[in-house]
Amino acid sequence: MQISIPFRGFISLVVAVALTAACGGGTEPIAPPKPPPVATSIVFTAGANQSGFAGMAPAVAAVATVKDQFGNGIPGDTVIFSIVDGDGTVFGLPLVTDASGNATAPQWKLGKSVGPQSLRATAKGLTALLTATVTSSYNIDLRFFGPPMPDAAAAGFTAAAARISGSVIGDLADVNVGTTAVDLDKGCGVTGVSLPAGTLIDDVIIYASVAPIDGVGKVLAFSGPCFIRSAPGSTSDKLTVIGTMQFDSDDIQTLISRGSLKDVIQHEMLHVVGIGTLWSSKGVLAGAGTVDSRFTGTLGINACIGLGGSTICPTSVPVENSGGAGTADGHWRETTFGNELMTGFINSGLNPYSTMSIQSLGDLGYSVNPAAADPYNIPGTNFMATRGAAILGEMSPAWESVAKPAAMITRDGHITRLQQKQ
Ligand SMILES: [Zn+2]
Question: What is the 3-state secondary structure of the chain?
Answer without folding.
Answer: CCCHHHHHHHHHHHHHHHHHHHHCCCCCCCCCCCCCCCEEEEEEEECCCEEECCCCCCCCCCEEEEEECCCCECCCCEEEEEEEECCCECCCCCEECCCCCEEECCCCECCCCCEEEEEEEEECCEEEEEEEEECCCCCEEEEECCCCCCHHHHHHHHHHHHHHHHHECCCCCCEECCCCCEECCCCCCCCCCEECCCCEECCEEEEEEEECCCCCCCCCEEEEEEEEECCCCCCCCCCEEEEEEEEECCCHHHHHHHCCHHHHHHHHHHHHHCCCCCCCCCCCEECCCCCCCEECCHHHHHHHHHCCCCCCCCCCEEECCCCCCCCCCCCECHHHHCCCCCECCCCCCCCCCCHHHHHHHHHHCCCECHHHCCCCCCCCHHHHHHHHHHHHHHCCCCCEEECCCCEEECCCCCEEECCCCC
